[in-house]
Each structure stands twice: as structure tokens, then as C-alpha cells.
Amino acid sequence: MRAALVQSIHRTIRPYTLALIRPPATFSRSEREKGHQANDMNRRTFLLHSLAAGLTATVATKLRAADAAYDFWFTRLMYESGDWDVDQRMPSNLLDALVQYTTLRIDPKERVLPLADPRMLTQPFCYLAGHKLVEFNPEEGRNFERYVRNGGFVLVDDCNHDIDGLFAKSFENEMVSIFGADALKKLPKNHAVFSSFFNFDGPPNTAFELNGWGDDLVHEYLKGIEIDGRLGVLYSNKDYGCEWDYDWRNKRWLAEDNTKFAVNVVVYALTA
Q1: Which of 38, 157, 173, 257 has its CA 20 to 30 A from that of 102?
Q2: 70-271 belongs to which homologous superfamily?
Q3: Strand order in the sheet with 126-130
Q4: Among 38-42, 78-82, 135-139, 183-187, which is the least confidently predicted range?
Q5: Domain boundaries, the chain
């Protein structure tokens, strides 16, 4: 049953993906109508369908009504064990990139939810980062697993840029505990996330890698956890959070916009 639902969503999402890439003025009338209909069949809608058994009808209706005005919003996850509130300017920078390059309707405000809060189960995109210990309590662990297994997407960023650091070791241990020893794997350079909007030959490097921050290594890979062929966890030791943590108005001074890969991540999260 779930496989059929996923196939149905993938068929419906194609005109929606066109809307992300092409300016609205270039659409035919039929494409605009199809794209409008497809807006209701994105990852958020899939999550609501998948989690319907665990939500009352009243709660589900309120969630749909509250977010009907937006295609995307940025949700940061709070967790009890570590310093979750890092890279505070990064969300506004990522949201600015989506405004600049896509026609998505963007909520300009970052949302913050505890990982233990059941409301996080209906978010289309979540971000989890930090420098310190990651040790989920029982409610956090259950929600993380349920969210990922039911179609959610979490971008996880190691702010230490250190594969032997506390955040990396403790987060990876949590993933082993929840999903098994072989679940977190290196992504190939031809993975769909690297071509979902802009084309990249693997993950772009960060200034922190090139300047010797953290473990003084350039990590030429990202890791992920896939559920039924869909990436549910995208995990980086490259410190993208710090790379994108600057005032979005200063982006115009860059020779190359380093937030373009963030657009890929979000488009993949919404359409995969």
C-alpha cells in the first residue's frame, strides 16, 4: 500500500517540480493548473497521510490549514543533550536562496520545535546541528525514527567539521541504535541530491575544510540513510551550517553563491 502511495506522489509531483525550476510566466494554462493541484501533494502532505493513524482529525485539519499558504518552511529541531541553537543566521540565508532561485512560496521565519514534540512529525524539512553530545531521550528517538521511516527529511550538520569529534561520534551512534549498523552510508557523487536543481559533481567544499578547521580534512562525501530508496537523513561533516551562517544581504559580494547547494537539498527533500 505504501509503495503505491509513493508511486502516486511521484507521478503527481512532476508538474510541481517544473514549477520550482521555471518562472511562472513561461507556463501554459494547463501546466499552471496541474502545478497548483500538485502543490497539495508534496512531502508535507505525504507525511500527514502517513501519520494519519497517530493524529486526531482535528489536529490534522489544523495543520493543513495553518500551512496552506506556504510550500516550504524551515524547522530546526531542539534536542536536550547538546547545543542545538547554532548557526543562527543560516536559516534566513537558505530561505533567501530559495526565494532567489525558485518559485516556491516560502515562510520567511525559522520555526523551532523540540524533537520530542509530535508536531515535528508533519514538517516537510527538519534541520539538526551542533557541536556537543547527541543523546536522544526515548521520546526524541521514537519521533526521529518515526519521522524518517514515514517520509520525513532531516539535514544533519556537524558544526565541528570533525569526524572524530563529539557530535559526529555521538550522532552516528544514535543512528546505529535506531536504524542499524549499516544504515548510514556514503552517498555516491551521482546521487539525485547533487542534481535536483543545480548540477554538482558531488558535495561542494566549504571554506572551513579548505582553511584547516576541525579535523583538517576535506570530506569528499556526504552520508545518508535511505528508506525505500528515498533519502530520509542527509548527514554532513562539512559544516555547511557555518558556511551559510552570514547575513544574506552580504551574499552579493561573493564570486559564487555558496548557498546554491542548499537549494538542491530542499528541492530534493520536497520532491524525492
Answers
A1: 157
A2: Domain of unknown function DUF4159 (3.40.50.12140)
A3: 111-114, 75-78, 126-130, 154-158, 230-236, 223-227, 185-186
A4: 38-42
A5: 70-271
